Amino acid sequence: MSGTSAVIPAAGKGRRFGEQRNKVFASAGGKPVIAHTLIAFQVCPLVEEIVLVVAEHEIDTARQIASEYEIGKLSAVVAGGDHRQDSVARGLQAVSASSEIVAIHDGARPLLTRETIESSIAAAREHGAAVAAVPVIDTIKSATQDNFVASTLDRSSLWSIQTPQTFEKGLILRAYEEAASDGSYATDDAALVERIGHPVKLIMGSYDNIKVTTPLDLEFVEARLGGVAAMKTRTGFGYDIHRFAEGRRLFLGGVEFSGEVGLEGHSDADVILHAIADALLGAASLGDIGRRFPNTDPRYRNASSIVLLEKTAEILSQSGWEAVNVDATLVAERPRIADHVVEMQERTARALGIEPDIVSIKATTAEKLGDVGAGKGAECYAVAVVRMV
Q: Residues 305-316, buried b or exposed e (16+ Cβ, 10 A)?
C-alpha cells in the first residue's frame, strides 16, 4: 500500500447527546451515523484502508455495522482511550506501515462528501498538512470573565475547523509522539502539527459537514440526508434481445423454464436480467453489460446471468450506488411467465441485495408483429432507479 489511510475516531461518550449510547450508533436516514461516515471513505477511490476507533465494549457492534454495509476497506477496529487524542493515537498505530497519507475524520460527521476527502488528500500531498474548514459567517466577539464584550474579531480571517484533517503519515506521527512526550493535549490534530512548527493548509469544507453533538444536530442530518438522496437519484433504461436457439436451456429472471427452447447468447442469455443490469449500469453511468462482461471473454461463456447481476450490484456498490427500484417488461410470444413472476422477482432482488417488493417483472406479447411476434426471439425493456449512498 502506498496510498491514503483513514483513521476514524468514534469512541466519544457523547454526554451532550443526552443518551446512554454512543451517538455514532444513532440512526439517521435509515442507517447508523457511523455507517454514513464509513461509506464516504469506502466509496472514495483514493482511500485504501480504514481504521475505526470505538470504545472497547462497542467493537463488536462496530464490526457488525461495517459488515452489514460492506465496508471492505476496514482493516482494523481498535479500542479508544480516555480522550479523543488518545483514541487517534491508537488508531495511528494501526495504520499500515506502507501508507503515506492519513486522513483523520470524526465518526460523528456523517455528511462528508467525496469531494472534500479528495481535496484534503491532494492538499496534504502538496503541503504535508491540510484541514477542512469553512469561513465563519457570524460576527465573533471575545468576552471578559464576567461576560462583557472585550473585542470584536475580524471574521474575514476566521475559519471554523472541521475534519477530515489530513497529513503526511510521518508528520502526524511525529506530532503525536512529541505531544505524548510533553503530556500536551489539543482540541484537534492540526494543533499538534502547528506546535511543531509545520504550516497547515486550509481547504474548503462544507457547512453541512457538522458534527452530531446534540439531538438537534441529528435532526439536521436527517433532513440533509433526505435532500442528498433526492438530489443523487438517477434513472436508467435497459434493453436486450435474443433469438431462440434449439439445444439451449431457457432462463428468464434467473428461473429455468424446463422443456422450453432457450435463447442464443454467450452467457445463459437471460434477456430479463441483461436488460435490468444495463438499466442499473446506465443509471449510474457505469457502462453496460457488453463492456463489463464482453462476449469475447471465455469466463462468461454460458455464465449464469444471476452471477452477472450480482457482479453488477458489486460494481454499483463500489461506486457508491444502490438500487431503489427495478421494473422490467418481457416481450415474447412464449413462454407464459405468470406462475414464475414471484420467484423471478425474489431471485433478482437477492442478487441485487434489495427487497423483492421493489422489483417488478411482467410480460406482454408483440401481437404477432415482427420477428418477436413471429416467435423467433424475446426482448426485454427495463427501467431502474439508483441512488448515491
A: bbbbbbbbbebb
Q: Cell for 85?
A: 487524542
Calpha distance 238→349 (Å, rounded)? 17
> Nearest CA to 50 among 1, 115, 86?
1
Supply φ then ψ for residue 269, to 5 degrees. Answer: 65, 35
pLDDT at 1: 43
**Is residue 107 a contact partner of residue 51, using CB atoms and an 8 Å limit?**
no
Phi-psi region of 336 (alpha: psi -120 to 50; beta: other; left: phi over 0): beta
Task: Tell me the three state secondary structure of residue 39.
Answer: helix
CATH 3.30.1330.50 domain locations along the chain: 233-388
| In the chain, ranges of CATH 3.90.550.10 domains | 4-231
For residue 383, the one-letter residue type is V
- In eight-state DSSP terms, residue 257 is -
Phi, psi for residue 3 in degrees, rounded to 5: -110, -135
Separation of alpha carbons 307 and 329, rounded Å: 21
Its CATH class, for the domain covering 4-231, is alpha beta
Q: What is the DSSP letter of 221?
A: H
> What is the tens place of the pLDDT at every residue in 101-115?
999 999 999 999 999
Residues with Cβ < 8 Å from 126, sequence gap 6 or more? Answer: 201
- Give this prediction's pTM: 0.61
Task: Report residue 162 as a C-alpha cell.
Answer: 472541521
Low-confidence ranges of the chain (pLDDT < 50): 1, 18
Whether residue 298 has a cis bond before it, omega within 30° of 0: no
CATH architecture of 233-388: 2-Layer Sandwich (3.30)
Tell me phi and psi for residue 104, to 5 degrees: -105, 125
**CA angle at 269 for the pair 265 and 274, rounded to the nearest 5°:** 120
CA 288 to chain centre: 21
As a whole number of angstroms, the distance between CA 230 and CA 238 comes to 22
One-letter amino acid for residue 205 of the chain? G
Contact 131, 162 (CB under 8 A): yes
Q: Which amino acid is at 340?
A: H
CA distances from 84 to 9, 90, 93, 194 (A): 7, 10, 14, 18
Contact 52/73 with Cβ under 8 angstroms?
no
